[in-house]
Each structure stands twice: as structure tokens, then as C-alpha cells.
Design goal:
The chain is globular, with a radius of gyration of 37 Å. The protein is of the alpha+beta class. The protein has 30 helices and 23 strands.
Length: 952
């Protein structure tokens, strides 16, 4: 029999066996198809969402040939790269003239003869909405012109054509609560426009902006500002020109060079798509070393692919092993008919090839289908339309081949085992016995310990490569130990009830199918826990570094111009009516000495100053600033540095917020309401002190023996006629010792406030005060509609005040990332546990029959399946959690090393590098997922005993 005929027979047998065992085959196909589906969908999404050069040009140019930009340098020679993004002046160019001495550039004169062009100019503006007012950007551009197709598309209504018409993006209409046909007014010049259409920017779906025809906004606004000094002029940006070159010629590199001579930079389509050689690019000589190195990305991609293959092999391998065991009689017949061990192995490998091929085809097909189905959702998430569904055939083929190869690899170990079995054992159904390796666990333990040590050393030394290598070694070592761990589980069931005892002993007895499934769960959970731990730790670090402008959960109404006192009550009413206010308000005043610096600020030393004098010495001076700071930084740990940075002596040196409108003194006028609503200091003694005229000091570093020193310089400006007449002569300096209530240390970091001074005490000290702001406690963050409504009400009140809410830390996707990781690990855990349970059920049918024969109730089958599933899931999750902590901690150690280096160079730099465990994710994986797996397995298992027939 030839080689090909032998393999043909093997594939025939494998195909028939796959059709006969439909459940097991579907399980293997699903495990191979799911990763192939994910990789295919990811490849299609990445390739489609990643804009090509041509798509980037369409986003910038539309259908035009080029974009001409005056860089504001005047008519001087410039140099640029062919992409039109990088530009500069030649090395031998003379010094650039001051901006007011530069001559204007006649940009249209640089266009190729016979060209057609459109102008584009944008400006910020405040416009009315259905809810109130909002800030946006208005662009004057003839969006109806065919040159803009591909860059701006109409989704509803019509393009604006008249000067009283305007169009808006869909994102703007949604945020503003408007629709086509509504009226929009530009605040300031009070120009009204009709919304004629809804637009979409395919390259920026989330853009909230307006479009009008050229001359519809900027010119009328400027004319109105020229006639009324109360109207601020428009702050229009630089003008740009979209150019369509001569028919058939476009805009060439020679046209670009000619425009560069006049001080104009050009982004030309045909130049970018077909750049000239470097010898024709004057700027190319200055741009060496711009090539990107993708080695790290390639290594990461290969690592992810290898881990995916390992997952599939670990999950599908036991299925092939059980399939080969259940087909051992058939394989024995092959041997008894003269088949060699190689041909027996070929039958099992052919099964892997058949199921791997089917899984690859199903996965690729499903990947295409799901990508097309969810394309609109993906585009909305990325904020960019796909130019087209980009398919790289060789990449798709490689993914399919990967699925096929994975199926063969998963069947490799079972094929070797099947080939080693004797014909007699196969025909009689005896499994034989084989002792577990005693060397493997020892080697695994050594590799595990060495990997952990290497990862920790890499983290301490700052070598990320050692961290990665140590993490991989630690996980491989733990993989080698899994059979022993599984065997140890059998001993734990001695005192347990019947079904959990049988489940544990079955897992220990059949390590060949239990250990790979546990390993697969461990690998998936380890990766998820590692990333989740690092993500949680980074989020905690970012939250610590965040510098709030106000106390969390508060809003402040602040006056622009305190001379218009009547407007502050109306601004308060706007907030109280529109914001989710929870509780009453606390009024805040500002205090100053001499002439008011907010009025007399044009000349130096023309107004008074006020401030607290900080004592020196321990507990008052920050040891991380000044003499000896660097020497101290070399000796202390990150934890000690954090303690010092958060101490009252250093907290003001780290950052100072003057968000309440006061100066660097951070002294405000307030009462007990400010303590409870803003400072969150609910202490009757503090409220009593304020009522008695005693200031409340929030930073104890400024107090000495319960008193503070208040220094005021009473300087009066010559322009402050009234007060200057009352206080002639030189500036007067006063120093007062005030008894204060000293708040606990934790209040030293209260944003914008260092000391609360009672109104009557300020007057007794000869200081001036003025009502300035009000603080409100909010039940939640206000939405767009509430903000717009409040802004509109304040605008109607004269626009002399503004509302500020507490700035949250930079928004990120940490919660979504943690959820995705938990879901991924949970799905793999459920899949691995289900596979093992199904295989153990099929493999232990004789044991279940024996249980029924000796009188076990029907529910034992259900509970046994549930506990078998629980054992695999829980063991894998716990081991994976331990394995995932190692790389996360090691990587954070590298971050700590870098942070300590920065701190020792600048002692005021934070070295806080926490390691925060994602307990919610771990709890979900360690408690919810295993229990869910067990319950599902029990619910889906039939309690009825199938009738068995005697072989032969």
C-alpha cells in the first residue's frame, strides 16, 4: 500500500469516526473554530479600521487634489516632506521676522494654472441648543461642493447654500437635542441660522461641529463687533485652500516646490501616494532615522498566537485522547489486520486534520459574517467609518492554516499514545497502567521557583525581558506540577460525601484529561489576572496623581466680574434649577489687603497682598524641598516618600489649587456651611469656632502653638482714587497673630482652601472682603442638557459668572478592560470545564452504570457532573490567579524602579507605585464562574441511565 493510499484510508476512517461521534466532534470543532473566529474578526476589524494612506487623504482633502496652507511665516522659502505634514525652514535660512513684520502671502497665486479651489476657515463659538447653550466649532466651507465628497457626507436634509443656513454633525444634533429645521443662534453677534441638514464626517463620527457657507459667520460677526464694542470679535483660525488641479494633471511635486518658495505647505494626493525620490526632496537630508521598529509588536503578536495555539491544544487534546480511547477497538482491528503503529497514529492524526480543517473553515466563515454584522457597531465604537472591508488573503489563509495545524497538534499526543498500545490491549479494552513521572514535578518545581526568582530580579533590576522570561518559566513550571496537584486532590475527598469524593478521585485517576483542562483554565486566568492586576494598579496610581480642582461631588458658581453683584444670585438660581443639587449652598467670599489685585493688575506692585507665614522647622518645612532634599530622597523608600508628600508640610509644595478664585494665600471667607458641604469637616467645635470669629486652619503646618501669623501688605494703586485718598503715603505692612482651630492633617489637601476666615474677623483686621462664589453639593455629575440649560440661564443673567464642577480623573476604559478580561477567562473556564465534564462522562459510562446497579439514585449522575466541572474550574482558576500575580508584580517593580529614579532626581516627583489586586475580577473568576460551571453541568446532564448492550 502506497503512502497516499494509506493516508487516504486514514482520512476515510477519521471522517467516518467524526460523523459517528457527533457530539465530541462538534466540541472539538467549536474549540478550534472559536479562536479562529476571534483572530479572523480581529484581523478584518484591524485592517478595515486602520485607515490606508488613500483613506487618510480623503479624510483631509475629500475629492480635491491638494490642501494648501499658509503657515504664517510670510513669503519665505520653506521645505517640506512629501507627506505635507513635516515642514520647516532651510538650515541656511535667515532669522524669521517678528509676526507683526511678516508680509501676507498670496496663496491662490501659488496654485497651478487652471485650478479650482475652495476656502476653509474655522472658529470657536457659543450657540443655542434645545436645552440652553453650548460651545462648539463652526467651519465656513462649501460642503455642498463635490470636492468635499468622502470627507463630509449628508445623512439627512440638505446642504446649506444661503448665508442664513447651517448644517450640523449628527453628534452635535444628538448632544444639543436639535433636529433638521430648527434654528440655531450664534451668541455674541446673535446671528440666527436654520439647520438645513445633518452631516457625517466619516473619519470622525464623534465630532460635534457646525458648517456654514463661506462668508456666513465670520464676516457678519466681525462687522457686528466693529459696530458694538460690547461684542467680542471672532477668533477665526487660519484659512486653508482645497485645490483641484488642472484636468488630468492634478498637483505635482514641482507645484509643491513652487508653493514652498512662497511660504506655503502643500499636502498633495498624488505626491503622497507616489512620493518623489529622496534626491528630489530638499528636506530629506534632515530627516534621517525616521524608520519605525516593529520588532516588539511582531514578538507580541507571535507570543499571543503561540498562547492561543497552546490554549486550543490543551482544550482539544483530551477530546482526541478520549476519542482514541473509545475507538481503541477500531484501532486494534487496524493493527490486527497488519497495520503498523505509524498507520494507527495516522488515523488519529487524520482525525485532528479533519476536525481542524472543519474548525478552520467554520471559524473563518463565522469571522467574516460577524464582522460584517457588527460593522456599524464597531464603526461607532472606533469613531470612524471603514473605507471598505479590507481583506488580506494571505493573512486569512495563514489563520485557517493555523486552525488546521492546531487540530493536528492537539491530536499528536493521543496519536503517540494510541500507537504505543498493544493490539491485545486495544481489542480487549484494557487500559493498562502507567505510573506518573516522578521527575516532571521536581523539574516543574525547580522551573517554577527559578521563574519567580528571575521575574522578581528582572523587576528589581528594571529589565522587562527578564520579567517576561521569568513569568513564562514560572507558568511552564506550574504546568509541569499540575498532574501532581490533580493527584493530590484525590486525597482530599476521603471525608467528603459520595459525589464530590468520586469527582475528585476521577480527576486524579484520569489526569490525562483533567490536567490539560486545568492547565488551559490556568493559562487563560493567569493572563487575565496579570493584566487586570497591572490595570488596577495603574488606575490607582493615576487616581493618586490626580489633582482635583474642587472637592469631589461639588460645583462652584463663581463671578467673573464682582462689580455686577446682582448677577450672582441669578447664576445661583440657574444652578439650583438645572443641576442635580443635593442640599443647601455655602457662600464663599474673597479677601484682600490694599487695592484689589483683580482690578489693579496692570502695573507691578500696584496692589496689596495677603498670606500666612509658614513657620520653619520639623512639621512645618517640607524636607523634600530645599537643602538636603536630594540626600534624603536617596535614603527613603517609596512608602516613606508618599507619607512625606502627603504630610501638611509638603502637600502645598506638591501642588496648589486656587480654583475658588483666591490668590496663592488660599484664604477664603466662609461659615459653617462651607465646612460641611465643601471641606467635609463635620465637627461642631469647628463650626462653633467660626461662629465665635476664630478662623479654621485646614493645613496644620502653618500653625504654631494653635496660632498662625497673617501678613498683609496694604499697597494702594494711584488709580484707586477712593482708597488712595484714605490711605496716602507708602505701603503699610501688618503682621497679626491669630488663634485658630486646627483641623486634622487629612484636610490639608482640600482644593483651593488653606484657611477659612470669618467675615467679622477680616473686617477687624482691616481687610476687604467681597462675596465671590457659592458651593453646591451634587447628587451626581450633571449631563449635557443640564449644563446647557444652566449656561443659557447664566448667559441671560449677563454672563458675569460661570459654573465649575469637580474635575474627575482622566476617563479611561479600565472598568471595560477588567470586564472583558473576566468574561474571556470565564468563557475559557466554562469551556474547559464543560469539555472535561463531557469527556469524563463519556469515559466513565461504565462507572456510572455500576453506580446505578448498586442502587445509586438517578440524581447522582447530575451532581457528579456538577462536581467534576467544579473541580476543574476551581483548580484552574486558583492556580491561574497565583500564576498571574507573578508577572504583574514583577512589572510593577520595574515601574517602581523607574519612579524611584525620577524621585531621586527631583524629590517632589511622586514615587507611589501601588500593587492593587483586582478583587472583583478574582472573586468573579474564583467564586461565580466555578459555581456557574458546576450548576450548568448538573442542569444539562440527564439523570436517566442509557441502556447498554454487551459487546460482541
Amino acid at each position: 500500500m502506497s503512502l497516499f493510499s494509506g493516508w487516504r484510508a486514514a482520512f476515510r476512517i477519521a471522517r467516518r469516526d467524526a460523523v459517528r461521534a457527533k457530539g465530541r466532534s462538534a466540541l472539538v470543532v467549536a474549540m478550534i473554530a472559536l479562536p479562529v473566529l476571534g483572530v479572523t474578526a480581529a484581523d478584518l476589524t484591524y485592517r478595515s479600521a486602520l485607515p490606508t494612506v488613500a483613506e487618510d487623504l480623503t479624510a483631509d482633502l475629500g475629492a480635491a487634489d491638494a490642501l494648501f496652507i499658509d503657515q504664517g511665516m510670510g513669503p519665505v522659502r520653506l521645505e517640506q516632506m512629501p507627506d505635507g505634514v513635516l515642514w520647516g525652514t532651510p538650515e541656511d535660512a535667515p532669522d524669521t521676522l517678528p509676526e507683526d513684520e511678516r508680509k501676507p502671502v498670496d496663496v491662490p497665486a501659488t496654485f497651478p494654472k487652471g485650478s479650482r479651489y475652495l476656502t476653509e476657515q474655522s472658529l470657536p463659538a457659543s450657540v443655542t441648543t434645545r436645552h440652553g447653550i453650548t460651545d462648539t466649532q463652526i467651519t465656513e466651507l462649501a460642503v455642498a461642493d463635490p470636492l468635499l465628497r468622502g470627507r463630509v457626507e449628508l445623512t439627512e436634509g440638505a446642504y446649506p447654500k444661503a448665508k442664513d443656513e447651517i448644517a450640523a454633525t449628527e453628534a452635535f444634533l444628538k448632544a444639543a437635542g436639535l433636529s433638521v429645521g430648527d434654528r440655531v443662534t450664534v451668541r455674541g453677534p446673535e446671528q440666527a441660522y436654520t439647520l438645513t441638514g445633518a452631516l457625517e464626517l466619516p473619519a470622525d463620527l464623534k465630532s460635534e461641529s457646525l458648517f456654514a457657507v463661506p462668508g456666513a459667520v465670520i464676516a457678519p460677526w466681525q462687522k457686528a463687533a466693529d459696530g458694538d464694542k460690547e461684542i467680542l470679535p471672532p477668533q477665526a483660525g487660519d484659512r486653508k485652500w482645497l485645490v483641484q488641479g488642472p484636468s488630468g494633471a492634478g498637483v505635482t511635486w514641482s507645484d509643491v516646490l513652487a508653493a514652498n518658495e512662497k511660504g506655503v505647505v502643500v499636502r498633495a494626493r498624488q505626491v503622497v501616494l507616489d512620493p518623489p525620490p529622496d534626491s528630489e526632496v530638499p528636506m530629506a537630508a534632515q530627516m534621517g532615522g525616521w524608520e519605525t521598529n516593529d520588532a516588539e509588536m511582531t514578538a507580541a503578536a507571535l507570543t499571543v498566537a503561540a498562547m492561543a495555539v497552546l490554549e486550543i491544544v490543551l482544550l482539544a487534546g483530551p477530546a482526541f485522547a478520549v476519542g482514541a480511547r473509545r475507538s481503541r477497538r477500531q484501532l486494534g482491528l487496524v493493527g490486527s489486520c497488519g497495520g503498523t503503529r505509524g498507520q494507527v497514529r495516522a488515523v488519529v492524526l487524520a482525525g485532528g486534520a479533519v476536525l481542524g480543517g472543519v474548525g478552520a473553515v467554520v471559524g473563518v466563515g463565522a469571522g467574516f459574517g460577524l464582522t460584517a454584522l457588527f460593522r456599524p457597531m464597531i464603526e461607532d465604537f472606533t469613531g470612524r467609518r471603514f473605507g471598505e472591508l479590507t481583506v488580506h488573503p494571505w493573512e486569512i489563509l495563514a489563520i485557517a492554516v493555523l486552525g488546521l495545524v492546531t487540530g493536528v497538534l492537539a491530536a499528536l499526543a493521543p496519536a503517540i499514545v494510541a500507537g504505543r498500545q498493544s493490539v491485545l490491549e486495544s481489542l480487549t479494552g484494557r487500559r493498562g497502567s502507567r505510573r506518573s513521572s516522578r521527575v516532571l514535578p521536581v523539574v516543574g518545581s525547580l522551573v517554577l521557583a527559578g521563574g519567580v526568582a528571575l521575574a522578581v530580579y528582572g523587576g528589581v533590576s528594571g529589565n522587562i525581558n527578564l520579567v517576561a522570561g521569568g513569568a513564562v518559566l514560572a507558568e511552564l513550571g506550574l504546568l509541569c506540577c499540575i498532574p501532581v496537584i490533580v493527584g493530590f486532590l484525590g486525597r482530599l475527598g476521603r471525608r467528603l460525601p459520595l459525589t464530590p469524593r468520586i469527582a475528585l478521585r476521577d480527576a486524579a485517576r484520569n489526569r490525562g484529561r483533567t490536567a490539560p483542562a486545568v492547565a488551559a483554565v490556568m493559562a487563560a486566568v493567569a493572563g487575565s489576572v496579570a493584566i487586570a492586576t497591572y490595570t488596577s494598579s495603574s488606575a490607582a496610581e493615576q487616581a493618586y496623581d490626580h489633582e482635583p480642582n474642587l472637592t469631589a461631588g461639588t460645583a462652584a458658581v463663581m463671578a467673573f466680574d464682582t462689580s455686577q453683584k446682582a448677577n450672582l444670585p441669578r447664576a445661583r438660581a440657574a444652578v439650583e434649577q438645572n443641576y442635580p443639587v443635593n442640599g443647601g449652598r455655602a457662600d464663599v467670599g474673597r479677601v484682600w489687603a490694599g487695592s484689589d489685585c483683580s482690578v489693579y493688575y496692570e502695573e507691578e506692585n500696584d496692589c496689596g497682598t495677603i498670606g500666612l507665614v509658614k513657620p520653619t522647622g520639623e512639621g512645618h518645612s517640607c524636607p523634600l524641598k530645599g537643602k538636603g532634599a536630594k540626600e534624603l530622597a536617596l535614603r527613603i523608600s517609596a512608602h516613606e516618600h508618599k507619607r512625606l508628600m502627603n504630610s501638611p508640610a509638603c502637600v502645598d509644595e506638591r501642588w496648589t489649587s486656587v480654583s475658588l478664585g483666591n490668590d496663592d494665600s488660599k484664604i477664603v471667607i466662609g461659615d459653617a456651611g462651607l465646612l460641611t458641604s465643601y471641606v467635609k469637616l463635620d465637627d461642631p467645635a469647628a463650626a462653633k469656632a467660626l461662629a465665635a470669629g476664630t478662623p479654621v486652619l485646614l493645613n496644620p503646618a502653618y500653625a504654631e502653638n494653635g496660632e498662625v501669623t497673617l501678613k498683609a501688605v496694604h499697597t494702594y494703586s494711584e488709580h484707586d482714587k477712593k482708597n488712595r485718598a484714605l490711605h496716602p503715603g507708602k505701603a503699610r505692612t501688618t503682621t497679626d497673630r491669630l488663634k485658630v482651630y486646627v483641623a486634622p492633617d487629612r484636610y490639608a489637601a482640600t482644593p483651593g482652601t488653606r484657611m477659612i476666615l470669618p467675615q467679622r474677623t477680616a473686617k477687624e483686621l482691616g481687610l476687604y472682603t467681597e462675596e465671590h462664589a457659592s458651593i453646591y453639593t451634587l447628587s451626581r455629575e450633571p449631563n449635557d442638557a443640564e449644563r446647557q440649560a444652566a449656561d443659557a440661564a447664566i448667559e441671560q443673567a449677563g454672563n458675569r459668572a460661570y459654573v465649575m464642577t469637580a474635575n474627575a480623573a482622566e476617563p479611561d476604559d479600565d472598568a471595560a478592560i477588567l470586564l472583558i478580561l473576566a468574561l474571556f477567562a470565564g468563557v475559557v473556564t466554562l469551556g474547559a470545564a464543560a469539555i472535561t465534564t463531557g469527556l469524563s462522562k463519556a469515559d466513565a459510562e461504565a462507572d456510572l452504570t455500576t453506580l446505578s446497579a448498586v442502587g445509586a439514585p438517578p440524581g447522582v449522575r447530575r451532581s457528579l457532573s456538577g462536581f467534576q466541572c467544579l473541580v476543574v474550574a476551581l483548580t484552574g482558576v486558583l492556580l491561574g490567579t497565583l500564576a498571574g500575580i507573578v508577572p504583574a508584580v514583577a512589572v510593577r517593580l520595574t515601574d517602581l524602579r523607574a519612579a524611584l529614579a525620577d524621585m531621586r532626581a527631583d524629590p517632589m516627583e511622586s514615587a507611589y507605585t501601588p500593587i492593587v489586586m483586582p478583587w472583583e475580577t478574582i472573586a468573579l473568576l474564583a467564586l461565580v464562574v466555578p459555581v456557574l460551571a458546576g450548576l450548568l453541568a448538573a442542569a444539562l446532564t440527564s439523570s436517566r441511565q442509557k441502556l447498554a448492550r454487551r459487546a460482541g
